[in-house]
Structure formats: C-alpha cells, structure tokens
Amino acid sequence: MLKYKPQTKFSITTFVIIILALTLCLSSLAKTEVYFSLYDDPETVIVENINKAEVFIDIAMYTFTDKEISQAVIETKERGVKVRIYLDRSQVEAKYSSSRLFVEKDIEVRISSNNYIMHNKFAVIDNKIVITGSYNWTASASTRNDENLLVIDDEEVIQRYQRQFENLWENKYSYKRTKELYNKAGQELLYFFTITMEGEPEKKLININTASLEEFMQVLGVSEHTAKRIIELRYELGGFKDPKDITKLIEIGTIEWEEWIEEGIIIIID
What we know:
Elements: H1 6-29, E1 32-36, H2 42-51, E2 56-61, H3 67-78, E3 82-87, H4 99-104, E4 108-111, E5 121-125, E6 129-132, H5 139-143, E7 148-152, H6 155-171, H7 175-184, H8 191-198, E8 204-207, H9 213-220, H10 224-237, H11 254-262, E9 265-268
Parallel strand pairs: 2-3, 3-4, 8-9
Antiparallel strand pairs: 1-7, 2-5, 5-6, 6-7
C-alpha cells in the first residue's frame, strides 16, 4: 500500500482544494439564463436587458414585429446608445414588421443578401451579454409558440457572436433590398450607402485631447457612457498620443473608426 508523508498529504489536499475553488470560481463567472415562452416571460427579459444597454446593441433577427421590444429599442437609440439591426429579406415587405419604423426613427438597418432564409435570432449588448435561442422577437413567440430564450454572459461566446454579426453586417447585406426598405419607409439611405452617390460628406473636426463630453456625443455620435470612458482613457494615458488610441476602448472598435472616416469626421490630438 502506497503511503504518503504528512507533508505530501497536506500538499495534495491543498492542491485539490485550490483546483476545486478555481473550478467553482470559473463556473460562477460565466452564466446562462434559460427562459421558455408560455411558462416564463421572455419578452420582459429582452426588454429589461435592452433598457440596461449603455453603449451598443447589435441585433440579427429573422422576424421582428414585437411592439414592446421595438419601442424599447427605439427609446434606447434615443438616449444615445448605438443600435444596428440586421434582418431577413422578408422584413422589407412583411405587413407587421418593425423594420420600416426603425428606419423612420433613424436606426441603422441592413437586409440580408441570403436568397433563402437568414434565420439567426440573436442580439449582442455592450459586449456583456448575448440573447439568443429559437425565440423570434414577435408577439406570436411570446403568446402562442413554444420557444426558448438564452441570456449568456460568457466572454468567449459573446465574442463569437459579435464577430458573426460583423461578418453579416459588412459582408452579407444586400444594397438593393436595403434601398427598397428605405424607399418603403420614405427615407433616404444612411451615409454608408449615400456617400458613393452624393460625393464626399461634410468634414467635421474634433480634437480628442480637448473635446468635452458634449462634443464627443455630438460629433462622434456616441452615448454619454462612451463619452465618459473616452475622457477617462484620455486621463489615464496623460493625453492621446495617436488618434487611433481611442479604439483601445472596448466600447469603440475598427467599425466605429471606419464609420467616422466615412462620415467625414477628422480626429486630431493637438
């Protein structure tokens, strides 16, 4: 029979305790909440999480008709949160789709180029959570269908969904279908479509080493939360040394930087 010295026994026990503690800590860091329609209330869960957004919401949705969720999205946009919505081609003409209302409310919407079905149903909020599952954001999903909804705060999962949204948004949208949607809503296309047709946009200059909270919000079109984070980073760095230092913030990425360039925003540091 194998015997261990007292010190060895202590070391092994300590090691096992540490491993168990680490496992419990790691498991508590990532959490998935599960909801079922007709039993739970997924609609309320979605609205509550939308209302908590501070920086951005990226939504990829097959069918979007739910009035309560739509209103929450609109109100979130109106308080300065960046909202992007990517929809299936059926939403251009669907009778009860919120797509045309979103366009009227100056929310960025793009339509899938998939000739079959864009069947994704997910949203990424502030790089903090992903909302996904079989649950379409519709009244039927809430009151008639048997659906499931997951709210996930696992960092790796969130990043995978965020990368997929960027892929859909940048590489798999249809200019023709999106233009049709904007025409039906009686609105002009947003800047990322109109630049090529209307020439260079009006230039706007901002010095990120001296700009105020209000200037960041007005010129860059960011939320108050993001504007505060820019000022905090400026203080931490002792002033920005390069304009692109601003993209070190998790709230700001290369997509925002490229959009500012397309909008004619010139970012300087002196």
